[in-house]
Write a structure and sequence with these properties.
heterodimer, A: alpha+beta, Aldehyde Ferredoxin Oxidoreductase,  A, domain 1, Aldehyde Ferredoxin Oxidoreductase Protein, subunit A, domain 2, 4-stranded mixed beta sheet, 24 helices, 17 strands, globular, B: about 90 residues, alpha+beta, Ubiquitin-like (UB roll), 5-stranded mixed beta sheet, two-stranded antiparallel ribbon, 3 helices, about 30% helix, binds iron/sulfur cluster
Chain lengths: ~600, ~90
């Protein structure tokens, strides 16, 4: 295969901030077919551009923006891109996806990916178009929120530019800082801090380079049909209530992480539920670029909401009254920290957006600190579960790396290593990445997904919770017999994240892999079937594992914090639910063997993932 | 058998109530009873006597059930949930 397939430009751009040089490199057609785009292609590229054992903050560490064959197509929810790097939070591979016009404009620069290495001498805005790569000074943007910085860049360069930028958390190397774009965030794993380490405040992209489609008429017809289906009952939950509607369901099933995973039900959940907040707070809806579903539910702060501790004196007015709420920021800044006041949760989410903080890791790390303080392991009297003022103040301190915030800016794993005294047992992370809002003792297929996840505890790379929410397994009894089901969700995510397509579309397909093969066929012309996509998914997951092994992974990392393996859920609907180390280990070993790896998880044959 | 049906998310939107007490000794009987009591919910959520694929049924926060003949006991709580719990 030598020709670049339709849907691709067949090249990537490499920019070196240290030398201010840039050049393009071809992407072989067979690599595109074997790794597709987004997360898959990014994994292949990251393999080529990551020296073993490199510090994620070292100038030579690579930061990637990766597009995909679906970007710019008429397929709904396809305006997505992957930001990738070795994570400063986990020291492992990190792919964080986002969705905005940045994806479309970035691909129109004429590149399937942009790789950035080096470190700028001073704050810089990288300006990329098909004709040029510029290194604009960004001293006046430093210390602005990502939203204000993006606005400023677009005022200067014109609205045809779209911008990915960092807030103060990224500048201050908070290890869970986000990369923000059009109000959306590549949230997990601290890739905003990697940008900050390069003194790269923003990346602005524009272009007019289009790719072709192998079967344009059929693609348009398919896209129209998909859009029509996306208005149907399969996505009603996302359109009408949003992901926040998980809250009451999870609470009722006793699977809602509460007070740093000490409980799995939150007595005040009703106050935070969208069903209640829709009555007490004005709500509007929005969507990502090129999306017909529109799952974003923006809640507006009530007039008597607590004042916002602003990010800086020059801080942002972004979202002064409107805050996008998702289940994950609601759970992490609400029940996980024992907070039941809706306005405090909204303020906290808003502050995370302004500073550029991943809400899951921020909430998880603060909840951990609250438990440490309550146990007398940290001398911070105000840090108590349920103290909203302390939550807001601590977020600000983290973003600025001031006081206790400097310790917590490194995430719960490193903070627990500093605090010691047994706190490591209840630091809520896997491989350094804080757990999302799925209690693993009550969702034991998901527990496996968390433990083996290559980017750490993660609900986007493993959808094993879907298996637990079904009659296929007993969600309170881990079984090695169920690992195949967990692998299926992991493989499906690997393909969706490489196409890239929104996972909230999942319900509209009768046969998801077949649908994805069809989309790829219409765009690229490849004669591709579900068996090949399964192989591709296996390859991508194994390539990520292989990357981690080169960066120092050991089998001991594939586990859960001791709390989950030694303590039962104390009360509520899941009272008594427990997961033993032996049961988890049996699952992990079965998983490794099913993946074709050694029993303890080493990749046997690396040649297929190169 | 007196049981409590609890609705969550879209199922609650369609039902217009959060909970309802009904008499039913099986999952199928519960759906049939709900068809009379909450016809708008039944139209939106039931297809040919079964929950549509976008919904799940759970008993007492513990067991997910699909079979219409699944026995329900006095005092059971039948939860009707969204099938997609992605966050
Ligand atoms: S469904 Fe939601 S997350 Fe997915 S593309 Fe649409 S607005 Fe974005």
């Amino acid at each position: 295969m030598t020709h670049t397939p339709p849907g691709y430009h067949g090249r990537y751009l490499h920019v070196d901030l240290s030398t201010r040089q840039s050049d393009t490199h071809p992407l072989p057609a067979d690599v595109l077919r074997r790794f597709i785009g987004g997360s898959g292609l990014g994994t292949w590229l990251l393999q080529q551009h990551t020296p073993d054992g490199i510090d994620p903050f070292a100038p030579d560490a690579a930061l990637l923006f990766v597009f995909s064959p679906l970007v710019s197509s008429p397929l709904t929810t396809s305006a997505k891109f992957a930001v990738m790097a070795k994570s400063p939070l986990t020291q492992r591979i990190n792919d964080s996806l986002s969705s905005s016009h940045f994806a479309i404009a970035g691909k129109k620069t004429g590149n399937d990916a942009i790789i950035i290495t080096g470190k700028a001498e001073s704050p810089t805005c990288l300006v990329i178009s098909p004709e040029s790569v510029r290194f604009d000074p960004a001293g006046d943007l430093w210390r602005l929120s990502s939203h204000r910085a993006s606005e400023r860049v677009r005022e200067q360069l014109g609205k045809r530019f779209h911008v990915a930028s960092i807030g103060q958390a990224g500048e201050n190397l908070v290890r869970y800082a986000t990369v923000s774009n059009d109000g959306r965030h590549a949230g997990r794993g601290g890739l905003g801090a990697v940008m900050g380490s390069k003194q790269l405040k923003a990346v602005a992209v524009t272009g007019d380079r289009l790719t072709t489609y192998a079967h344009p008429d059929e693609l348009i017809a398919y896209s129209k049909d998909l859009s029509r289906k996306s208005f149907g009952p399969a996505t009603a939950k996302y359109r009408e209530l949003g992901t926040v509607s998980n809250l009451l369901t999870f609470n009722r099933l006793g699977t809602l992480p509460t007070r740093n995973f000490q409980q799995s039900e939150f007595a005040d959940a009703e106050r935070l539920a969208p069903e209640t907040m829709s009555v007490t707070h004005e709500r509007t809806r929005a969507s990502c670029a090129a999306c017909t579903i529109g799952c974003e539910h923006i809640f507006h702060l009530s007039s008597d909401a607590p004042p916002s501790p602003r990010a800086t004196a020059r801080g942002s007015a972004h979202g002064e009254s409107g805050v996008r709420m998702e289940y994950e920021n609601l759970f992490a800044l609400g029940p996980l920290c024992g907070i039941s006041d809706p306005d405090t949760v909204l303020r906290a989410s808003q502050l995370c957006d302004e500073l550029g903080l991943d809400t899951i890791s921020a909430g998880g790390t603060i909840a951990f600190a609250m438990e440490c303080a309550e146990r007398g392991l940290l001398d911070v009297p105000q840090l108590r579960f349920g103290n909203g003022d302390a939550l807001l103040q601590t977020l600000r301190l983290i973003g600025h790396r001031e006081g206790i915030g400097d310790l917590l800016a490194d995430g719960s794993r490193l903070a627990s290593q500093q605090i010691g005294q047994g706190s490591e047992d209840f630091a809520p992370h896997v491989k350094g990445l804080e757990l999302p809002g799925y209690e693993p003792r009550t969702l034991q297929t998901m527990a496996l997904g968390f433990a083996v996840g290559t980017r750490g505890a993660d609900h986007n790379r493993s959808g094993a919770y879907q298996v637990d929410f079904s009659n296929q397994v007993d969600r309170l009894q881990a079984s090695p017999d169920d690992v195949r089901l967990a692998i299926e969700t992991e493989n499906e995510a690997a393909i969706m994240d490489s196409l890239i397509l929104c996972k909230f579309l999942r319900g509209v397909f009768d046969d998801r892999l077949a649908a994805m093969a069809e989309m790829l066929h219409l765009i690229t012309g490849w004669d591709i079937n579900t068996a090949e996509l399964q192989e591709t998914a296996d390859r991508i997951v194994t390539a990520k594992k292989s990357y981690n092994i080169r960066q120092g992974w050991t089998p001991a990392e594939d586990t859960l914090p001791q709390r989950f393996l030694t303590q039962a859920i104390p009360d509520g609907a899941s009272a008594g639910a427990s997961l033993t180390k032996d049961a988890l280990q049996a699952q992990i070993q079965a998983y490794n063997l099913a993946r074709g790896w050694t029993p303890d998880g080493y990749v046997v044959d690396e040649s297929s993932v190169k | 058998m007196s049981i409590t049906v609890e609705f969550f998310g879209i199922a609650r939107q369609r039902a217009g109530v959060a909970t309802i007490e009904i008499e039913a000794d099986s999952l199928g009987a519960a759906f049939d009873e709900l068809a009379g009591r909450l016809p708008q919910w039944s139209t939106a959520c039931i297809d040919d006597g079964h929950l549509k694929s976008t919904f799940l049924a759970n008993v007492n926060s513990r067991t997910f059930i699909t079979n219409r003949s699944h026995r329900l006991n006095e005092g059971d709580h039948l939860l009707i949930l969204a099938a997609d719990v992605g966050g």
